[in-house]
């Protein structure tokens, strides 16, 4: 029986319950997404979570085994029918640039326009404009082999935008470049996307890249979206412990709560328990009166208590030990290990002895609670 899906209005991309099976392996297990025109979505997640598989369905390179995909309210993919890539008005940028080595830069960028039968002068004008937009004005006569990796990726970007696509797709385009170049090109791509206003989907496993570029970030795990939100929301209000762990927001500790009162063991001594009352806003992932679950202690919520200092006010404290320190830009980035092995990170002015026992003051207003999730099907 064919499932029924709604025809989305005013949405550039709408994925409804998308599934992808490869034989018995279920690579996408029901993806729902909506992307407004001109917005940039990053697909972020660990290796093998299904980012590229989802991008290939958007590109028309894979046909979904379930669900439906709409571009501008028109269905482009379902298990029954699939619009081919060349009819989807797409621009694509891949990790390996995929430039034709025997063509000049201008030849590469203008190829699709020539195939569309545009007049020579028109092709030239649009190629020149696209090259200027990516910072390669005047380099159209060069061969790809005469360019650096970063410049080749700019050519690929110019080629993707020159035909004014309705949707731009990026598959880890910066992962072959060194760190400095990655950072600068990433901000440039972000600015360019805002300038041209094209809807875009960008696959990456790099948190910073996702935040720099995207209006929304979908964090994926094992073929599902764990959370889709703005970078600010994701970092400030992670929806579950898996998202918090993946984003490395801090330590995620097993705990117990009754109402808003959370208790966790703070030391190897079973009697040592920290008890805090969380603000209502930090309990969004809680239901029912009491529950076993996990407490996120973000790195930003902790401060090392000076040796010998007495606890101030009723700030809760954890006992931990110094696990490692690295000197960076005049300060020590300090890893603190909690009894269960989880680590928190903070900055110190001074070097501390390795394995020294320390007390860690915790700002309870920054803690977040997650009820233990039922076992995944
Ligand atoms: N054609 C295929 N046949 C069988 N399995 C596949 C196929 N394509 C992808 N897979 C599997 O589907 C899962 C998701 O793969 P995908 O490439 O989408 O992950 P990813 O999140 O993009 O990972 P990475 O960041 O490493 O590129 C993986 O387990 C992969 O092995």
TrEMBL record:
ABC transporter domain ranges (all copies): 13-247
One example GO MF annotation: ATP hydrolysis activity
One annotated GO biological process: quaternary ammonium group transport
Alphabetic keyword roster: ATP-binding, Cell membrane, Ion transport, Iron, Iron transport, Membrane, Nucleotide-binding, Transport
Lineage, uppermost ranks: Bacteria, Pseudomonadati, Pseudomonadota, Betaproteobacteria, Burkholderiales
GO cellular component: membrane
Protein name (Swiss-Prot/TrEMBL): ABC transporter domain-containing protein
CDD domains: ABC_Carb_Solutes_like (cd03259)
Organism annotation: Lampropedia cohaerens
Alphabetical list of SUPFAM superfamilies matching this protein: P-loop containing nucleoside triphosphate hydrolases
PROSITE patterns membership: ABC_TRANSPORTER_1, ABC_TRANSPORTER_2
């Amino acid at each position: 029986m064919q499932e029924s899906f709604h025809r989305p209005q005013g949405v550039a991309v709408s994925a409804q319950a998308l599934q992808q099976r490869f034989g018995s392996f279920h690579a996408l297990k029901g993806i729902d997404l909506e992307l407004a025109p001109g917005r940039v979505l990053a697909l972020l997640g660990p290796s093998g979570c299904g980012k590229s598989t989802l991008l290939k369905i958007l590109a028309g390179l894979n046909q979904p085994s379930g669900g439906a995909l709409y571009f501008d309210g028109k269905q482009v993919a379902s298990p029954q029918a699939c619009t081919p890539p060349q009819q989807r008005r797409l621009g694509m940028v891949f990790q390996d640039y995929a430039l034709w080595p025997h063509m000049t830069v201008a030849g590469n960028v203008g190829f699709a326009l020539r195939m569309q039968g545009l007049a020579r002068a028109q092709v030239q004008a649009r190629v020149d404009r696209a090259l200027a937009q990516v910072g390669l004005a005047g380099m159209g006569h060069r061969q790809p082999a005469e360019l650096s990796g970063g410049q080749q990726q700019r050519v690929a970007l110019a080629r993707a935008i020159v035909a004014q696509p309705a949707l731009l797709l990026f598959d880890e385009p910066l992962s072959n470049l060194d760190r400095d170049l990655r950072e600068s090109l990433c901000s440039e791509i972000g600015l360019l996307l805002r300038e041209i206003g094209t809807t875009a989907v960008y696959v990456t496993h790099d948190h910073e890249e996702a935040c720099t570029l995207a209006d929304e970030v979908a964090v994926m795990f094992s073929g599902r979206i764990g959370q889709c939100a703005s970078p600010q929301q994701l970092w400030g209000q992670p929806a579950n412990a898996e998202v918090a762990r993946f984003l490395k927001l801090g330590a995620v500790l097993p705990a117990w709560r009754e109402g808003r009162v959370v208790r966790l063991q703070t030391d190897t001594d079973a009697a040592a328990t920290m008890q805090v009352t969380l603000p209502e806003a930090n309990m969004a992932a809680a239901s029912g009166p009491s529950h076993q679950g996990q407490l996120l202690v973000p790195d930003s919520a902790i401060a090392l208590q000076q040796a010998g200092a007495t606890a101030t006010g009723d700030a809760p404290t954890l006992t931990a030990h110094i696990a490692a320190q690295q000197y960076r830009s005049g300060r020590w980035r300090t890893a603190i290990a909690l009894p269960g092995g989880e680590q928190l990170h903070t900055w110190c002015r001074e070097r501390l002895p390795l394995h020294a026992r320390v007390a860690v003051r915790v700002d309870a207003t920054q803690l977040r609670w997650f009820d233990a999730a039922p076992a995944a099907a």
